[in-house]
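Q: Convert this sequence to structure tokens.
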Amino acid sequence: MAKSTAGASAYRCTECGWQTAKWSGRCGECQAWGTVTEPSGGRPGGPRLRTVVARASAPAGPPAVPIGQVDAAEASARPTGMEELDRVLGGGLVPGAVLLLAGEPGVGKSTLLLEVGALAAESGRVLYVTGEESAAQVKLRANRIGALADQLYLVAATDLDAVLAQISAVEPRLLIIDSVQTIADATVEGVPGGVTQVREVATALTAVAKERSLATILVGHVTKDGSVAGPRTLEHLVDVVLHFDGDRHSQLRMVRAVKNRYGPTDEVGCFDLGEFGLIGLPDPSGLFLSSHREPVPGTCVTVTLEGRRPLPAEVQALVGPSVLDVPRRATSGLDGARVGMVLAVLQRRAHIKLGRQDVYAATVGGVRLTEPSVDLAVAIALASSAANLSVPSGVIAIGEVGLAGDVRRVAGLSRRLAEAERMGFRRAVVPGGSNSLGTDEGFSRGMEIHEVSDVHQALIAVLGA
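A:
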């Protein structure tokens, strides 16, 4: 490792502050690539922040007061008009809060925020800044989805000075930046979307939002692994981080809160993306179930928890003899590693020979099931397909499968079973010991509940001996 030297001409890492006398493509401290730059002098962004605060015309800071005398009404949430989004936010947008909405390209982030802006414009001015499209392109989308409002102001800008000038001119109650990676500060070195630019632009917009009590929504890009692109400090700067995801081949879209200073982080909002925009789905149950006139081998229904919301989902499996030297293992909507673990448990603990079989496992409706509670349904679906036996209709399976073949308890079992009964299911296979521990408080007596302690018992309860 090169020695860290201090000095005006030293190269500095924009992520952790590590310094070196020579330029390096990789930081020797935090191991980040492309973050070592030569500062032009002084602390990057320091004078810029002072300029931004001065532009906001903020008075001197108020004196400290006892916490009991602080007026909490200023931080009360204002509904956006979209019930599913308000559910995730904890009631709505808080004045002065900065929200980061991240998602893959084409998932519908701009459509969602354009509808939110049109609804919020009914009670005040909204400024929508687009840096990826022209104003005419955004207008065409607004015409298509019906997101037109007199107090919705639209501007295409990529310079931070222009954005700040528009904020001063319009004085909105809601600011939408689409996206933060396209905005650049002329006084900061680096290309738009780079680590330094994103951090400085986000810091400046956050300062303005706090000074003006301006609710701000920033659109962020994501990397290949689904995390928010840019410096990690971006997620620390904002108050709320939302992930907007969905399958390209499905119309279902989900909003999840990863960080929320004003509400819960275990809620999820469901939307249907159609030709005329996004429609909230207050009751998405049934979207992930297929209709069969009679039972089909290789299918089993479970109930997963998306935040606090229970959703019945169907798991499908297909097992057949392989003509390859190495049998295929393919999954869609399921964790491939967990499916492989369940296969090993079935072969070792339940004595089902699957070593020379091609195995395909998938979900219905494009939903992605990563919760361990779906293990039991995957095991039953695989065994059902291998034995060519159908799971009786009206049966659900909930439980986590361990490597010893045991079926472990899961959280929220009462909510899962209540939702399953509402959807018409009458039999449930659940982990053993739930009743003795009192975890089934509130279970409906209208359901026939089978408690099992291992996978072998579960297969006998569902498929028979």
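Residues 1-8, 41-46, 437-442 have pLDDT under 50 and may be disordered.
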